[in-house]
Amino acid sequence: MNGTELSAVLTTAFARLANASDELRELDAAVGDGDLGITITKGADAVGTRMSELAHDVLPSDVILATADAFGTANPSTFASLVSSGLAAGAKTTSGLADLSTLEFVALGKAAAATIMRRGKSSVGDKTLLDALVPSLEAAELHTDDGAGALQAAIAAAVAGIAGVTGIAANKGRALWAGERGIGIPDAGATAYLRFLEALSHSVAVINDRRGESMTTRVFTFYRLNEGVDLEEFMEWSRRVDQPTCRLMDACRSFEVFLVRGEARGQGFYDVVEDIEVVSWQAWQDTLASPAFAQVSQEWPTYGDESSLLSIHCEKI
């Protein structure tokens, strides 16, 4: 990926990341000062503006440095400072390169993680950004011959990393002061990184679509939960099994799950809506029937009412 392509991908990704600001503000407010939402909003806007100002023949390292500076200065905060310094360190690993491979993106991420560890005096297991960042890089490194596969593996690993520390109290950052009150609340910084990875995946797919290299199909799946199902248990299964598995599938571009909370008119019938972006309807059907999907297929009926299941595929007009 060259500098111009990277700039386009980041512009789209940060614009999408801004949509998660309310979620991140609420997570941060539960254990800290709640400023992460505004950090993301202002940072994303600043990055978009800076990307539009770059030269057409910009190098990837300059794109990354511009991102680091824009995000770090838009709304100065501990999180913004750590991310900015990490990106600046990562940019050094790409100096002089006209194009970046997946392996080089992983090297960039590792340099960023090392800087964040050093400056934040934290490590994996402290319930911070690192609990999503480090596992995601380790997973991506196993798929360096497949950029899309590496990104999906990174997302799945980040989800698992966040889940792995949600049940403990934070050992670093302002969340440390919340003590046991933070148990059961996902780390806001790690969640912000996860949302960025998801936005990045969507952005890459959008850019590819614009080039005509990868047409995608949208699949919407609706269903009710079985009577008596424990909602928290279902949500845990969805986050731990269903979502990571789907995102790892080659046919899947993005996978998001929503609980229905209310209706504007009439009587609601469905409890869950899944929004899935896939390479094609047939590729997705083949995935559902594949051995790699067996665990989801076997366990889903424990939670979902098969008689209510509706799955439709759509094309944008």
Rg result: 20 Å
Question: Could you state the CATH homologous superfamily of the largest domain?
Answer: DhaL domain
What's the architecture of the largest domain, going by CATH? Alpha Horseshoe
CATH class of the largest domain reads Mainly Alpha
CATH topology (fold) name of the largest domain = Serine Threonine Protein Phosphatase 5, Tetratricopeptide repeat
The strand count comes to 4
Treating each run of at least 4 consecutive H or I residues as one helix, how many helices?
Answer: 12
How many discrete domains? 2
Residue share in helices?
A: 55-70%
Q: What is the strand arrangement across the widest sheet?
A: 2-3-1-4
Proportion of beta-strand residues: 5-15%
Protein architecture, described:
With 317 residues, the chain is an alpha+beta fold. The chain folds into two domains: 3-211, Alpha Horseshoe (Serine Threonine Protein Phosphatase 5, Tetratricopeptide repeat); 217-314, Alpha-Beta Plaits. It is 56% helix and 9% strand. A four-stranded antiparallel β-sheet has the order 2-3-1-4.
